[in-house]
Amino acid sequence: MNKNAKEAIVKAAISLFNSNGYSGTSIRDIASLANVNPAAIAYHFKNKTGLLEYCFMHFFEQYISKIEDAYAFIDRGAKECLKRIAADLLFYQSEHIQLTSFVYREMSIESQVVREIMSTYSLKEKYYFQKIFERGFEWNEFRPHSIPYLIIQLKGLLMMPFMNTRYMREVLYVFPNEPFFQQKYLKEIHLWIDKTLCSDVPIKKGAVIK
Amino acid sequence: MNKNAKEAIVKAAISLFNSNGYSGTSIRDIASLANVNPAAIAYHFKNKTGLLEYCFMHFFEQYISKIEDAYAFIDRGAKECLKRIAADLLFYQSEHIQLTSFVYREMSIESQVVREIMSTYSLKEKYYFQKIFERGFEWNEFRPHSIPYLIIQLKGLLMMPFMNTRYMREVLYVFPNEPFFQQKYLKEIHLWIDKTLCSDVPIKKGAVIK
Amino acid sequence: MNKNAKEAIVKAAISLFNSNGYSGTSIRDIASLANVNPAAIAYHFKNKTGLLEYCFMHFFEQYISKIEDAYAFIDRGAKECLKRIAADLLFYQSEHIQLTSFVYREMSIESQVVREIMSTYSLKEKYYFQKIFERGFEWNEFRPHSIPYLIIQLKGLLMMPFMNTRYMREVLYVFPNEPFFQQKYLKEIHLWIDKTLCSDVPIKKGAVIK
Amino acid sequence: MNKNAKEAIVKAAISLFNSNGYSGTSIRDIASLANVNPAAIAYHFKNKTGLLEYCFMHFFEQYISKIEDAYAFIDRGAKECLKRIAADLLFYQSEHIQLTSFVYREMSIESQVVREIMSTYSLKEKYYFQKIFERGFEWNEFRPHSIPYLIIQLKGLLMMPFMNTRYMREVLYVFPNEPFFQQKYLKEIHLWIDKTLCSDVPIKKGAVIK
DNA sequence: GATGAATGAGGGTTCATTCAT
DNA sequence: TATGAATGAACCCTCATTCAT
């Protein structure tokens, strides 16, 4: 029952954190949804903070590993590699849509714990994206460009569908957790990579936009 | 001191909501930052919810009016119109970076009030985007495409810099509130419009991506 | 507007004090029901306490004056006098049913103000009842009896219909504010006076129950 | 300390509710009088309302059971039965004088909770009184009479000594919690039953006062 | 390992009241 | 005279957490 309890707690926490936000969710709510005694949460995670930490670690470890795994194939080309990352992240996020949504939201809140966790993973992520883009520039796969601005755009495209799933469903009638969406949206990102990132439009020579 | 108090409360609220989230911010925190009595908040806004409502309305009324104003020039071309909207929204968001950041985050939390406010503005926004895209398709300015997926991408590009400003500053060394950024990033969006949205690459005939 | 405002406040106060109790009623509630600014109550009555005081004084001055007026006719007989008091009080209470109900309830709450007001009127009331009963004993109109216990019974009979008017209406289907009730119930009290108070059953001689 | 805490809270609550009224008593007051943490009240009773509910239930369950127990002996005669009820209720009320006093006062305040509780018990009580009176009429023990008006009188006599104990003590020098009072006052009620209720005075034939 | 009792801090809100206008 | 703004205290309640069992 031990393992089950812990899993049930995490599952309940993710669901409630996603709906009501971290601060808006009480330990009691989580415990009652998980059919667990409130003290059990303290036992397994020490803290409410500990539970948050666990969720973040859980998310970002897998998140980064997707990037790392794909980066192993960088020699097949930066473009190919980037497309694979897009596919893998899209798939991963779709599979853990509540966790993704909640992590992306809570990420922007001032918090000792979050800041510490993020500092590691953000840098790792940036490192890989940077490598890939640089490789793409070198081999003339990508149009020369400011890397930070590329990262913003890429992450914007990748995160957007999961930032507000209610909006997606109720306003745009798009369902980010369905395979259909994943395939469809992946093509959009490919299009961005092909058209905007790799665009062969002649740029003034040497003009690497900083 | 009347007007000042209300303004001071709103200013403090936006700052704290942005840093700590709505649920993570107490009325007492706001009051003490605004140098105001906690009861004054209840007096001016009735509720903590009322304060949130005020912030949302304040944001979205201006947000929508930017779109509406730009839409008036639709006859000069959908592309031109869209670029103007991008510029205006980017500028508006940069000018109210904390409010923007906090609204975009809190938007995704389950809440009666937020849901009600959003339902109005989301539909308005969608309406205008839809009109513009349709016009663009008609006049062959834009490559035929699924509108919802275009909206996702456009909004992703527009919102991303303001979703996590700490990440922007500390990881990417990008400062979304500076005029330099606005100009720079606007060009990126123009690029997306020119390359991805208007791309003249021959599409398989009649292939309107659903 | 001055006089009207004061009257409106009192009227609203009596209604709300009756429904929700003194402590359960806020000055704002009263003000809004009376269509008056909350500060106006402070102006007219200085305090919430002052308003309570006013209600009590208002009630008991008339209450005692009814007794005093009837007592003037003590020479026509104690029984006659008592019946007149019963009739007058019953009528007065029926006419001011909300005020009566609320005063009788609030009377039993520990409060400096109430205690002070009551100490005067309770003693006055007791004085008259005592005089009447003693006169009744002297002239052999009433069966000798302990005066305090008579007062309890008499007051019990007089107050009961107004102590919980909802119970009267909804459970017993009796409506203490209607003339029909007054006449009917007055006969009951007369019966008590005639049968229980004046009962000629031979009592052991000299046995004045203490 | 479990059971003790709950009991201590109830005891303190009854005392304070009696002195200051329900609305006039704060949870902190109760907690500090009971030497308990304020949150413990919420733990044991969920609400301040829950505490009130508990007091009411506690009172009326015993109250009704006294009536029910006595009603079991209805076959010994309605008069006998009524006298027994009077005795038992008087004794019960004397023993729980503060609770009785406070319940009788708060009963008349507009409140969802009180209304719901009362609706049950009032009807039960009425049912038994009605049965007894009807039986008394049938067997010619009681003079025919309107039942609601009899209930008013009986309840008035039974409740009066506990409606305002300060008045009893300080004005009438009567102490409703002392055995002496119980015996004395019980005789008064017997007198009412014998003289007013059972009065053999010839009534106009068939005249059942409605 | 798991739980019910208890705690102190702090949550949002309402209160009666005051004061400048 | 009458009122809108503002205040500080107190309201009830919920919080995350601890601890003995």
TrEMBL record, chains A, B, C, D:
Please name the SUPFAM superfamilies in this protein's record: Homeodomain-like
Per the record's keyword annotation, is Repressor included, yes or no? yes
State a single Gene Ontology molecular function: DNA binding
Q: Which Gene3D superfamilies does this chain map to?
A: Tetracycline Repressor, domain 2
Which residue intervals define the domain HTH tetR-type in the entry?
A: 3-63
User: Domain of life of the organism in this record?
Assistant: Bacteria
Keywords on this record? Answer: DNA-binding, Repressor
Which is an annotated Pfam family here? TetR_N
DNA-binding region location: 26-45
| The protein, known as | Forespore capture DNA-binding protein RefZ
Origin organism is: Neobacillus novalis
